[in-house]
Amino acid sequence: MYRCDDQSKTIIACDRQQRRYTYVLPPFPPLEEENGGSPPASTVTPIVNRYFYVAESTIDLTNGATLSANNFTDDAGNQVNSFTLFSPNGYVNLYVNGVMQQGNMYTLDTNSLTIMPDNTTIAQGTPIIIETVGFTTT
What we know:
By secondary structure, the chain is mainly β. Helix content is about 5%, strand content about 40%. A hairpin with a 2-residue loop joins β6 and β7.
């Protein structure tokens, strides 16, 4: 490493053969300076809902599959009629047999879970868990 000549003064050292550079970034101003006082106080509170279903028979995903909300139970074991969604301040996770699924493999609306077509099946007895997470601020 050797010192580089940089007009902007942001690169202080570089190794051109390995394409490694050391940069110096200007410090961020404290929040107090930006807001003219103390930063505003706020609390972020997560809201988590989980929904559970155990496949009663093998689910063929060749053409995709749709599971109604009323097939699922909540954390207390109560059957649900709809899923709670938090948009835009939240997200959804789907777990099949304990493994989180990619977001593009499914869609969820308040009434149903739709799993996209795939050349596979979900075996009878496999747990399917939906987790919806939202955030509120005060």
